[in-house]
Amino acid sequence: MDLGISGRNALVCGASAGLGYACANALAHEGVAVTITGRDVVKLEAAADRLRAETGAKITIAAGDITTEEGRAAALAVCPAPDILVTNAGGPPSGDFRQFTDVQWQAALNANMLTPIALIRAVVDGMVARRFGRIVNITSAAVKAPMQGLTLSNTARTGLTGFVAGVSREVAWANVIINNILPGPFDTGRLRRNLSPGPEIDNQAAERGMAAWAARIPARRVGNPAEFGAACAFLCSAHAGFIVGQNILLDGGEFNSTM
């Protein structure tokens, strides 16, 4: 299927690895010119080189912390008028909510709620004026089923979900479409680190952890990041204009619900 977005410009956050990279890759394969952001300029440049080699697309980088005003300004200086925005930021730490400080709460809200809102605010009016825009927020399956110990993430991402529910319906008339993708377990470096007992990735421990998780999932496996990227690319496509303000859960059926 031709997604009808060749020649468009995209800004994809947190795209040096993992799900952000998978989204950038899928969009680049569709002929989209992609700007990728990330904190580590070396990793970001390596990711850009891989994307160029794999897709032949125009790839630019905007190094910086997207959760800061300076990082967002740097990204928007490189890609000032994106047709497509994919927001993505790493999740906050787990733990007992009683132990979190105000600084930790503010950091979680900033990274996983206020930063996406700031980026949407910066680009949405231009999208409305051009009568085309696609915004996809990478959130978490915890929005549907809050996870024990992930109170910071549960709270911040649910706040973003409420914001998107309202604003997505305010701009859909202009063919500006905003949705969220809620990932369950995907085989990324982040998941492997989370399943490793020490500070470094232990692939054997990670494989055991993923196998145990897969046993609880109807699909009997964790997700492939390429699947996530393909879903994101479709939501960014010319064919997704009637999908408004939705929370698309990609979890292999782990969350059991009729709705």
Automatic annotation (TrEMBL):
InterPro entries: NAD(P)-bd_dom_sf, SDR, SDR_fam. Its EC number is 1.1.1.100. Pfam families: adh_short. GO terms for molecular function: 3-oxoacyl-[acyl-carrier-protein] reductase (NADPH) activity. It is an enzyme of class 1 (oxidoreductase). Gene3D superfamilies: NAD(P)-binding Rossmann-like Domain (3.40.50.720). Keywords: Oxidoreductase. The keyword Oxidoreductase applies. PANTHER family: 3-OXOACYL-(ACYL-CARRIER-PROTEIN) REDUCTASE (PTHR42879), NADPH-DEPENDENT REDUCTASE BACG (PTHR42879:SF6). Belongs to the short-chain dehydrogenases/reductases (SDR) family. This is 3-oxoacyl-[acyl-carrier protein] reductase. It comes from Acidocella aromatica.
